Amino acid sequence: MTVFRATACTQDEELYMAKSDIVTRGVNTDEEFLQAIDLQAKLMGGIAYFEFFQRLKGDGKLWPSLSRENVRIALLNGKVVGTYRIFPLLVRIGCAAVPIGGINNVCTHPRYRKRGYMKALLTDGIEHMKQSGALISLLHGIPDFYYKFGYAFVGCDHRLAIQARVLTSFQKSLTVRKGLMDDVPRMRKLYDETNVERTLSLVRDDAVWRKHEADLPRTRVIVDRSNTVRGYFLIANRRDAFVVTEVCAETNEEIMQTLLAECGRLCRVGLFGQGDFLVPPDHPLTIYCQGHDALMETRYKRNSGWMMRITNLEGLFSAMEGELSRRVTHSHLGSWRGVLGFETDIGSVSLKISNGVVKCVSKESSGPRDGIKLPQSLLSQLLVGYRSAAELDKGTVPAPSRDIVNALFPVQYPFISPEDGF
Questions:
Q1: What pLDDT is stored for residue 14 in this prediction?
Q2: Which of 159, 242, 246, 342 has CB atoms 3.0–4.6 Å from 234's, for a disulfide?
Q3: Residue 82 lies in a domain
Q4: What 3-state class would DSSP assign to 183?
Q5: Which 8-state DSSP code applies to residue 181?
Q6: Is residue 413 part of a domain?
Q7: Closest by alpha carbon to 20, among 30, 10, 31, 28?
Q8: What is the mean pLDDT of residues 114-142?
Q9: Cα–Cα distance between 229 and 41 in angstroms, integer?
């Protein structure tokens, strides 16, 4: 629990507020919990307040990791004036599974905005995530706000657009039907195979898949003649466009042709002129469509959308040792030896590299090293491959270390499935 001195803001409340303390912590009582989700439902749910409130109330059963302690609140004289939720989850960064704190439903009561309460609450939450074992924090942010707290944009919006006339030219040779509960184990396997090294893809455990079971009515599975699921895709609940929000499938010709042909049929039934597939440029479906008439669009944002910050610098790089070793080994610098030190605004970390093995070591035991100074926000972007190490100013990275830094931080397409928004 953290106590901050509140700032006077309105003439009527000036003396009262100046003497008040803002307390930031997780909820302790049922009353605080109901106040928090009531505020979230009012500000996030709009006219669907009641439905939103009931869903928030039941999310504790759907997400067992969403404990009361992870519903963070800012209390002013016993009243909840700001709140958000933290989801303890795992995401991939390459082959590493990294614990995260995923933040959503960030809101402040309109009467108490622009007084520093959310700053206090986010500062409290970042420390709580660190103490709880989260190595990074992720959120889908509004423009020009979260960068103030060290969050940096890491995930682009991608769209593969294919005209309906092109989709209907494909041939369907397998069966496509709605997803069933019995299909979920096979869908899990296909999801893991598709995202085995997909940076920022969610590691879906049993609880996450229970959440996705509610989406089976809009799931289509591709089955072969033995009724084995060979692929699946999810269709968004939209009337104005045909949008596929997730595709996981084996990559042979027969399956891809069937998937696209079925989407063409659905476009024709719904009188849609094109199908949009929310997949990144290196997704198997995108690669398959390179031989056909398709359009890939990528939207880059500055200070909004999927954003990340590091909460535990040394812990993160220790968890990344295997992935960083893999990156070096697969480069032309497998025999490189030396020590790199990264100095950031949240601390420092040293990497000892020897013959393809990367170890996170203490600054004191690392010995002579090449020092690289950069903000943790930029280091976050480098680590997930959103930014290229080649973009770094020449004064930032010592000349002898430039090649190994490029090997440690290759360009990738970090991507969170639209179905995994928390």
A1: 40
A2: 246
A3: yes
A4: helix
A5: G
A6: no
A7: 10
A8: 95
A9: 38
Asked if 377 and 151 touch (Cβ cutoff 8 Å), the reply is yes
Fill in the amino acid letter for 64. P
The answer on pLDDT for 169 being more than 50 is yes
Q: Residue 10: is its pLDDT beyond 80?
A: no
207-248: per-residue pLDDT in tens? 889 888 889 999 999 999 999 999 999 999 999 999 999 999
DSSP letter, residue 369: -
Instruction: Considering only CA atoms, give the Rg of the chain.
Output: 24
Q: Rounded to whole angstroms, what are the CA distances from 193 to 198, 231, 354, 357?
A: 10, 11, 31, 26
Q: What angle do CA 225, 226, 227 make, to 5 degrees?
A: 90
Q: pLDDT (tens digit, 9 = 90+) per residue, 267-322?
A: 999 999 999 999 999 999 999 999 899 999 999 998 999 999 999 999 999 999 99
Q: Which domain holds residue 65?
A: 2-134
**Which structure tokens are listed for 224?**
């072969």
Residues 261 and 372 in one domain: no
pLDDT value for 88: 94
- Do residues 215 and 170 touch, judged by C-beta distance below 8 A? no
**Owner of token pair 């591709």:** 222
Q: Which one-letter DSSP state was computed for residue 296?
A: E
SS3 content of the chain, % helix, strand, coil (to 5): 40, 30, 30
Domain's final residue, options 247, 265, 299: 299
Q: Do 313 and 376 touch, CB atoms closer than 8 A?
A: yes
Which whole-number Å values give the CA distances from 49 to 46, 112, 181, in the listed order? 5, 21, 30
Count of the separate structural domains present in the chain? 3
CA atoms within 13 A on the CB side of 54: 3
CATH of the domain at 165: 3.40.630.30
Q: Which among 279, 228, 236 has a CA at the least distance from the CA of 254?
A: 228
Q: pLDDT (tens digit, 9 = 90+) per residue, 57-91?
A: 888 776 767 788 999 999 998 899 999 999 999 99
Burial of residue 291 (number of CB atoms within 10 Å: 0-12, 13-18, 19+): exposed
